[in-house]
Every structure is written in C-alpha cells, then in structure tokens.
Amino acid sequence: MDLTLLLQRLFDAVFNGGIYASLALALVIIYRATGRFNFAQGEMATFAAFVSFLLLTGPRPFLRGGSVVGLIPGVPWPIPLAVLGAVLFGIVSGAATERILIRRLERKPDIASVNVTIGLLLTLNALTAELWGTGGRFFPAVFPAGPDDHLLIGGARLRFTSIGVWLTLLILVLLLVLLMQRTKPGLAFRAMSTNRASAELHGINIGRTLAAGWALAAGIGALAATLSANSVLLEPSMMLRVLIFSLAAATLGGLDSPKGAVVGGMIVALSQTLVPAYVPFVGNELSLLPAVIMMLLVLLIRPAGLFGTEQVERV
Amino acid sequence: MTDALDVDAPQRSWPGQRHVSGAVCVGLILLSLPIFLDSIQLQRLAMSLALFLAILGVNLSTGYCGLISLGHGAFVGIGAFGTAWFLDAEHLPWPAAIAGGVLTAGVAGLLIGAPALRLRGIHLALVTLAIAVMFQPLARQFPQFSGGVSGKAVAARIVAPGWLGDGRLADTMWQLCIVIFSCLVGLLVVHNLVNSQWGRSMRAVRDDERAAAVYGINLTIVRTGAFAMSAALAGLAGAMQVVLFPWVSPDAYTTFDSLTIYAVAVIGGLGTLRGSVLGVAALIVVPRFQSLLSSSVDGVSSPWLDLLGSDALVFGGALTALALVFPGGLAAVDTAPITKFGRRFFGLFFVIGRFLKRRYSTF
Amino acid sequence: MSDTILNVSDLHASYGPLSVLRGLNFEVNEGQVVVILGANGAGKTTTLRSICQMCDTEGSITLRGTDISSKGTADIIRLGVGHVPQGRGTFAELSVIDNLLIGSYTRSDDGVQADIDRWFEMFPILAERRDQLAGSLSGGEQQMLAVARALMSRPELLLLDEPSLGLAPIIVEQLFETLQRLNKEDGLTMLLVEQNANLALSMADHGYVIESGLIALEGSAQALMTDPAVQAAYLGA
User: Which H or E run includes A156?
Assistant: First the structure.
C-alpha cells in the first residue's frame, strides 16, 4: 500500500470532516434540546451561504422577472465580513424559525416535526433555486486555496483550507464549551435539555432558550455552508449530501454529544475518502453508502453512539 | 394471532355503493378526457395519476402503520426498473412484467424494512431520508437495470389492442385505462386491507406499540408486512410510469421526487383513503393551476408570482403549514363552512326564484 | 393574624378536555405550613401545578395580592414561588452543584455562593457529592437536592409535592425534620401535598382535604388529626 497516497487521502478527509463535524454540531444542539432533527438544517445553511454570496457581489438584482430589488446598496463586502453576515443571518433566521414554526410543535407528535422540517427543506430549496437559479456558482475560498497553499508532510499535501476549517472548528468547539459550561444561558440550555418541566419550574424561559439554541445551530450551519461553498460550488442542493453525512456523523458520535459530533464527522469523512479508494464497487458517486450503513448499524446496535447518553425509557 | 382484538367481528368489507359509484364516476370523467386533451397532455396527466399508487403506499406505511417513510421514491424507481427489465430482458408480456416489477419493489421493501423497521419515529425518518438521497447514485451503479447516467429506452411498447384502433391517441388511451385500472385495484386492496384484521393491527401498532404487543400482535410481522406492501404499491406506480413512457432513468428518482411524494401524501391526509385521493388531486391540479396563473397574467410580470410557479415551493410550504394547522391534511379540513356557504349561495337563487315566480304569477 | 401569601379562590383546572379541579378555595398565611391531603387522583398535584400555571386554569390565584393566574410559569417562579415537583425534577445529566446553580437562575445578586454553602451545611451529603452527576444520587439524596435547589431561589412560598414518595421511612423522617427546621428557623412558608397524612399533619398548622376536585374538609392540623373522617380515610386509625 502506498503510504503517501494513504496520507494524502487522510488529509483530503480533513476538510470534509471539519464541515461534517460543524453541521453535526448544529444538529446535535437541536437534538439535545428537543429530541428531534432539523432536517432543514442543510437548506437553512445553504440559504445563508447565498446571502453571503449576495453580500460578496454587492448590489445585485436578485429576483427574476420585471421588478428588481437590490437589497444592499454599496460596495461588495470582503469575504470575512460576508461570512460573518451569513452567520448573523443564520442566527436571526434560526431564532425566527423556532419562534414562528417550531414552538407550535411542542405538544405535537414527532411526525409533525418531521413534516415541518421536511416541508421547510423543500420550501427553502425551491426558494433558493427560484431566487438564484440551480446552476452552480463560484464562491471564493475563505482560506487561501491556491495551488501552492499547502504544507508538504511526508509527500502528501495538507491544504491550508483544511487547516483553516479545523482551526475554525476548534475555536467553535471551544467557544461552545465555554458558553455551555461557564455561562448562565449555557446552564439554562443544559437544564432545559435534561429536564424541561423542571427547568421551567426554576424560572427558565423555555421558549427563549430554545430559540437561542436554534439561533446557535443555524449560525454554525451558515458557517459550515460558507466554508464549504468554495469546494462544492454554491447551488441550492449543495448541503443535501452534507446533511446526510452530518446526520451520520452525529448518529455515530451519539446524537446528544458535541464531542461525538466532532469525532463522528472525522470518521464519516474518512469513510468517504477511504472506502471508495479501496472498494471498487463504491465509486465516488456512492461515497455516501459507507456513512449511511454505519449510521444504520449504530442506530440498530448502539443507539447512544460512541459518546451519547444511553436512553432508558420508563414504562 | 390477534384473538384479543377480535371483539368486533371481522368483516370482509367491500367499498360501499357510494364509493364504487364515486370511483366509476371519476374513471368515466378521466376516460372522457381525450375530448379536451391531446395525447401529450393526456400522458402527463396519467404520469401524475400513476403517482397516486405511491402516495397510497406512503399512506399505508406512514398513515396507517406510523412508519415514516421519506424514501418511497426509491421503491417507485425499483418498480420501474424491474418492470423494464422483465419487459426487455426477460421478454415477459406486459401484465407479467408489471407483476414482476411490483414484486421486486415489494421484496426490496422487505429487505430494507427488515433492519430499518427496528427503528422508530424520528430515527426511521432519518434512515429513509438517507435512502431517498442515496437511491439516485446507487441506481446509477446498475446501468443494466436503470440505464445508468444517461437512462435507457424500453424497447417493448404497450400498444392498444386492435379493437381500440391504432395511432398515438388510442395507445395513450389504452395506457390511461391500465393506469386507472391499477389505481382502482390499489385503492380496493388498501381499502380491504385497512378494514381487515390486519388493518386494525396496523393501527394498533401505530397508536400504541406496547399495548399492541400486549394484545399478542407480532410487531415485526405487522410493521414489515405493511412496509413491504406499501413498497409494492410504490413499485406499481413505477411500473405504470414505464407503461406510459418507455424510458427509465435514475434521474427520475431524486431526493426531491421522494420528498414530493411524501409531501403530497401528507398534504392530502394520512390515515384516510380520501387523503390519498386529495393528495394526487393536489399533485395534478397545482402545476395546471400554475400554468394557468402564468398565462393569465402574461402582461404583469411579478417575481412573486414566479415563486408560485415552483411545485416544490408550493408543496413544501403546504406541508409545513398543514402540519401546524391541519395535521390531518386536506382530508381533515372542515368543509362544513364551505357547504354551508354553498347552501346559502344557492338558497339565494331559490329565494329569488320564488320571489320572481310569485311576482310574475300575479300578472 | 399574619399576612396571607397565597389566596386561591374558585380554582378550576383541566388538562385539555379532562377537568380535574372544580372550584377550590384555600389560602396560605405567612410562616405557616399548610398541608393538602387527598386520595390518588383527587387533584393534589394538579393544585400545585395550577399555582405555577402548568395546566389550564380558571379562577383567581393571588400571590401577595398580585393576580398570577395569567402569568407564565417562569414569571411566577420569579415572584417568589419555589416548586419541588413530584418525581423530584432532577437534572440527571448535570452535576449536583450545577443543579443548585439552576436553582439560583432567577437571581442576580452575589449571595449565591453563600446560599450554596448554607444548603451544603444543611445537607452534608450533597456537599460530598457536589461534582457527581445528580442522576447517580439515591432517591433520598435527590429529594434533598430538589428541596435545596428550590430554596436556592430564596422563595417566599415553597410548594412541595409528595416529598416522601418512594423514600425509606428513616429518610422521610430526616427530610421532614429539616423541613420543620426551615419553617421554624427561617419562617419559610410551605404548601405541602402528602399521602403520608400522619407525618404531614404533625408539622402542619393548617390542612385541607381534597376529594374529586373539591375541598371536602378543612381545619387546623390539630382538628384534622382528631377528625374521625380523616382518621378513617388517611390516618388508618
């Protein structure tokens, strides 16, 4: 086996791993708080990435047809600010989504939450396609991504974008841990995730805390989408596969464990690059297959995943 | 197996007279369509109609048995690929090929269901969404069945028998007849199934799994059986697509095709047959309504009107909205106010008529 | 006569179509321990839940003269009600110390650490397990944690929902001793729901008996103890 090639494949997985881990973090935040998935997490992120695309390109007519609406007058924004804009947009839209749609689901069965978030997935995907078209668009790289922007380790290239994504993820996790463990809103969020009724009896405003959770998740999602938009081209369905990879990552790591999301993201990304390389049937098109099979196996054999809490159902 | 549930005597329930006459009426209306539509429009209509069977399949698994399935498009695809295979490679006559396609989809449902159905609710939704996303790339890996990246033509054609005449319109009519017949068979089968002992078991499993198990219902058999049956129905929808249009391609079964089937099934209403009928009605009406809309407002161009032109947007929006407002879908929307309004409205004519009659009779 | 802290009049409560309380009237005075007795399903827990607006209610509930019947749960807690729910409301995946910090969620003063120290002194076992996950505590320890957590918000009125449920008699005795001390030394007002009538009446000032959503009987704890109907139904005499 060619070691350099293996190393190169590992390095290739690093970038995707960071993206999957970020989106998996977003999914885990919401799963912890509500025991449900936000299937629209990917599409919400895509929409936010398009918003940052809008900021990057400056004033632009963005609706088809006769009447033209230019939202942002002035000069194109620099990339870091545009990414920040997308994250802010994600935060606001996440909170709004919770307030307008998700809060009404409180006492409804799980299938209602599936319907609402799948409906949102379809709506946002169609809306993005209507507003910006379905063709892929070039999105500038957030980190240096030129042909020479890499470190040479053992003959394999570790690209700066991969390092950048992982540094971002590291900072993100650090901030998240600080937020959750050291601040009062973080404590409220953990309390709500563990025992909602009891949290309410201690004066914690459940609605506001949930909205904050959704805002946080959508903000992280927006960051993941803008970071990955350069490598996959910006298009309405770009996060669909990423969503499945990230769901697999979250499941693998344990659905309520942020640590699990990060480890799971890396494992899933490794399976994505390594399995097609050594199993001929699983071509690049089928790179989702190993992740999905792992997800199914974990759900069947050990639903708590690697780091999740064992759920004990009381009868 | 389910003696304990046998309190109310099991009845071999056939659809009531009202249902039969309703179905016949709808069939007759559909058969009279060639007067208004050309063969291409007819074919498009029939393509949408065929999806009724897939919607029925989602309803059977999700609505009646509580198994959320976001990936039924995969079974439609398997049914289509299977039918095409039996037609072309095995040279079976078309009824046998359709049966083969349906069986293939059913077996696929069984194989996927056996592991996946040990999951519940939200996790099953997760796995079936993964199936929906994976099916298109997976199907491309089997070009001998699916035609691979480019798709493939199906050589065998289903043409009208001699007595119906020949030509394109006659063929399309004949194909439409097959689709309508299949839809009616599917409807009848599901109707009988949900009103049988099995149907009661399915609903029991949906409503309270633990209680159902206590009553001696074998959860695995009921869940897997319902899922395989619903996959077979979806497969029949795929077979009908091949009957109508001799072409198969993985690109017809993307994630969004699966999700649209699910969305329409929920929008129509889960857990009632009326819901599935309303669902396919929405699937047929919405795009027509959109083309009507865009042609009638030709002069006024508005980007917001354009937004309505996207099926996925309408169905996605409706799915979200209905899940919050009417969880039972269109079938559960209270029609009483509309009927009441209608009665008042026509009552007005009645009153005017009486008034006029009295007025003029005095002359 | 002392001031009325809580006044409940003509309280109706329901869970959706199921109506549980059908016109309750009672009050709790400052410094008192008031006990609500009743059989299973009589509506005791619902009474406490109604005070915190955790089910649909009609009628008036006033806390120190302020109507709280249309406020949210979180706001009522902020007004000075502590609630020890049935099942103890433990935050199982959080540490003991975090559980106590949640108790002080509504406070912004800097006396939190002093209070933690104080309850650790009163419940030494909690101090020993301060960094342990609360879910790993025994039932009695979790009940003490629940009381301490509720006290962290410095409530004027403490609602206790069957604190003796599922605990060994010796633990129950310890717990009630502590509660009595809190009442005597701190003047903490308590509204206590109990099945263990004997123990509850022995520390209470006043009592009510609920039967199918209505007050069937009320009186001083002394009077209720000697009431033949109460003795027959709840004291097993």
Answer: strand A156-159
pLDDT digits (tens, 9 = 90+) for A78-103: 888 999 999 999 999 999 999 999 98
The terminus-to-terminus CA distance of chain C in angstroms comes to 33
Q: Which of residues 188-207 of A touch C (CB under 8 A)?
A: 188, 190-191, 193-195, 197-206
Neighbours of A224 (CB within 10 A): 32
β-strand pairing of C206-211 with C189-193: unpaired
CA distances from B360 to B302, B355, B356, C132 (A): 51, 9, 6, 94
Contact call for residues A223 and A52 (beta carbons, < 8 A): no
Q: Under an 8 A CB cutoff, do A65 and B306 touch?
A: yes
Same domain for B121 and B21 = yes
Considering only CB atoms, which chain A residues are within 8 Å of C72? 205
| Domain C4-89+155-235 CATH class label | alpha beta
Total number of domains in chain B: 2
Distance (Å, rounded) from C-alpha A245 to C-alpha A217? 17
Instruction: Report the C-alpha gap between C60 and C34 in whole angstroms.
Output: 19
My answer on whether B45 and B155 are in the same domain is yes
Instruction: Tell me the residue type at A63.
Output: L
Instruction: Indicate whether B257 and B339 sit together in one domain.
Output: no
Residue A130 at interface with chain B, using a CB cutoff of 8 Å:
yes
Q: How far apart are the first and last CA of chain B?
A: 77
Residues 6+ apart with CB under 8 A from A297: none
Q: Are residues B141 and B47 in the same domain?
A: yes
In this complex, which chains have at least 3 CB pairs below 8 Å with chain A? B, C
Residue B188 maps to a domain? yes
Are residues A240 and B137, on separate chains, in Cβ contact within 8 Å? no
Residue B108 confidence class, pLDDT cut points 50, 70, 90: very high
Cβ distance C94 to C102 under 8 Å? yes
Q: Where are the domains of chain C?
A: 4-89+155-235
What six digits make up the tokens of A207? 């609605």
CB A143 within 8 A of CB A161: yes
DSSP conformational letter for B13 = P
Query: Bridge partners of A234?
Result: A137
B304 contact partners, CB below 8 Å, separation of at least 6: none
Average pLDDT, integer, range C124-137: 92
Distance from CA of A38 to the nearest CA of B (A): 10
- Confidence (pLDDT) at A66: 47
d(CA B323, CA C205): 52
- Residue B298: inside a domain: no
Residues in chain C within 8 Å Cβ distance of A195? 89-92
Q: Are residues B158 and B262 in the same domain?
A: yes
Q: What is the mean pLDDT of chain A?
A: 88
Residue B280 in contact with residue B264, Cβ under 8 Å?
A: yes
Give C212's DSSP letter.
Answer: T
Residue contact C73–A184, C-beta within 8 A: no
Cα first-last separation, chain A: 53
Position B118 scores a pLDDT of 87
* One domain for residues B48 and B159: yes
* CB distance C203 to C180 below 8 Å: yes
Same domain, B98 and B182: yes
Q: For residue B19, what are its two tokens? A: 């249902």
pLDDT tens by residue, A208-262: 999 999 999 999 999 999 999 888 889 999 999 999 999 999 999 988 888 899 9
Contact C122, C93 (CB under 8 A): no
Among A105, A119, A289, select the one facing B317 at the smallest CB separation: A119
C-beta neighbour count of B305 within 10 angstroms: 14
Shared domain for B63 and B192, answered yes or no, is yes
Residue B176's nearest CA partner among B339, B342, B26 is B26
CB atoms within 10 A of CB B214: 11
Residue A176 has which token pair? 């998240």
Q: Domain span at residue B98?
A: 15-285
